[in-house]
Amino acid sequence: MPAARPHIEPRLVPTADSVVVKEIYLSLQGESSHAGLLCAFIRLTGCHLRCTYCDSEFSFHGGARRKNADVIEEIKALRTPRVEITGGEPLLQPGVYPLMQSLLDEGFTVLLETSGAIDVRLVPPAVHKIVDMKTPSSGEAARNDLRNFASMNANDELKFVIGSREDYDWSKALIAEHRLAEKPFALLFSTVFEKLHPRELAEWTIEDRLSVRFQLQMHKYLWEPNARGV
After folding, report:
1. Which has the closest alpha carbon to 218: 84, 34, 81?
2. Which CATH number does the domain 11-222 belong to among 3.90.190.20, 3.40.367.20, 3.20.20.70, 3.40.50.300?
3. Which residues are within 8 A (CB) of 120 and not within 5 positions of it... i.e. 6 or more apart?
4. Which residues are documented as binding site for [4Fe-4S] cluster?
5. Can you say which residues are annotated as belonging to the binding site for Mg(2+)?
6. Handedness of CA 40, 42, 43, 47 (dihedral sign)
7. Which residues form the Radical SAM core domain (predicted)?
8. pLDDT at 13
9. Which entry of 9, 74, 173, 178 is 20 to 30 Å from 22 by CA?
10. What are the binding residues for substrate?
11. Could you tell me which of 157, 227, 209, 217 has the C-alpha nearest to residue 187?
12. Residue ranges per domain, the chain?
């Protein structure tokens, strides 16, 4: 587990009323228990990890700083009740916390896609947190913040992206060690696209009778795997 670090109350940060946005777009939610549903996406700039299988490296740099109020108005114009904040790693930006709360206050269902390397305890409880556990093939497994297991609630989902049998065995062992199947949040298994055939993961999961939700990244089958704005 990473060493403890100080938390700064987001509202005390000068940039808490704005975020650096890479793109905003409308699409279908491609994974999680919300898969297949119409969803607006806010992709924020920046990430402190460099996963080997990253499919959004374009979000590491660039974008434009925008006031949260302006972002919310653009989301309203997309006319969908569901919005996901993703990245990069959105929790690196102090302004994302009040942005999430403001979206909730406006009546949106809010999803957050986060790397699992930052404790999510400051995220508003009503947000649906999709927390990505970094498996060994990511190259970033040492960065997982296991405090998240205590910070997640029944709204949330813990995602394992699996690229090898080693990743699968590691994930299975972690679930057993921390008794994650008994937690209130859901467990998701998916493959690294074009690295491990989904059938293999499905068969391993069935053989071991794991209490997880097997999923495909729907958007990568509908569009190009690394397409922007989908």
Report:
1. 34
2. 3.20.20.70
3. 91, 112, 114, 129, 131, 148, 151, 152, 156
4. 47, 51, 54
5. 56
6. negative
7. 34-225
8. 60
9. 9
10. 28-30, 43, 86
11. 157
12. 11-222
